[in-house]
Amino acid sequence: MIADSEFAAIRWRGKDLRVEYQRIAPERSDAPLLVFLHEGLGSISMWKDFPERLCTAGGFRGLVFSRPGYGRSTPRDADETWDVDFMHRQAHEVLPAFFEAIGLQEKPWLFGHSDGGSIALLYAAEFPDRVAGLVVMAPHILVEDVTVANIELARQAYLDTDLRQKLGRYHDDVDSAFWGWNRIWLHPPFRQWNIEGELATIRCPILAIQGIDDEYGTLRQIRGIAERVPQTRLLEIPDCGHSPHRDQPETAIVATVSFVKSESSP
């Protein structure tokens, strides 16, 4: 069902990088293609079996990859710092370069979690004709106090507990993954980051999912998407934190399958 990992070569920021990716059920040539965009500390392996379960349930194809700096993709240099526009650059530069490198020509569905959800939104806003639809779980469209407070707690846990060891299972260079994400989110100018005004150019359908108990953001995030993109459906899940695919996977799968199939109908 899942093909072995492959590596795509891209050039970004003046450097040659490799991007780790896996295909799910490529033999389903006529099925919708879901591209999975991981969270700020994620990777292919950190999704575990969720992408395969979702694609099996819906009869979809899947494409899962680790952004540069994560998983088995090229790590971030130790002295490389990310700018406030790092998610914009992932959406506007890295994602198109990756798609070109693997020869992707069709319109995929983007399934993004957390930072990956924000990147999906930014891609669809910049390239409205290149995407069939979006499923975004716990995306960020602005920075909230609760987000920063919990990212500060994550920093302390990384320094003082076994969090570094646990995350090391999912990344060849765990410091690359953690500090790239943590330092920019705690960088004071990043408090002004806001993409609300950019959402209006999105033309594809959106399913926005968030746990009611999300520790990294309030429901203002997905409700703000619906206010600006009228073709948005909202799913607010009780007894669910920041990761619906781990806390309430069946709810996320059923909702996604129903959404993609209904929006794929002629």
Automatic annotation (TrEMBL):
Domain AB hydrolase-1: 34-255
InterPro entries in the record: AB_hydrolase_1, AB_hydrolase_fold, AB_hydrolase_sf
Stored Pfam families: Abhydrolase_6 (PF12697)
Keyword Coiled coil: no
Organism domain of life: Bacteria
SUPFAM superfamilies: alpha/beta-Hydrolases
Keywords: Hydrolase
GO MF, one example: hydrolase activity
Protein name as catalogued: Alpha/beta hydrolase
Organism this protein belongs to: Variovorax ginsengisoli
